[in-house]
Model the fold of this input.
Amino acid sequence: MDKQKNVLKGLTVKVYKFILKSGNPVGIRKIQRALNLSTPTLALYHVNKLEEAGLVKKHLNGYVADRVVLENLIRLRRILIPRYFFYTVFFITALIILIIFLRPYIVTKEYVFSIATISVATITSIYETVKAFSGKVL
Done:
């Protein structure tokens, strides 16, 4: 597992994510074109690193992801969704319910505290989701 995490850096993680998202076997030239790499040899270099780490396997038509190692991402078919996205949806829903449906006639300090707490949780989870979408978190 340590070797796999050491490999998943820089351009290699982009190659891995592309292979993982495609779902089908992917050829070297397709990786090169999709990621705008200068040569197919560069794509092959990164694929070989992934293959040595046991993350991808070679098939007849190209390479496929053998393991999903991206800890903060969940794969739904061909889409990689940050785990924090689900927390974001939960906190936004809780905030909407609290503001619209559970609003008291007289605003109390407990109500204000609960709004503030859920707002901070929502902002934090949105930040983590955006950071995971940008690819800075594994």
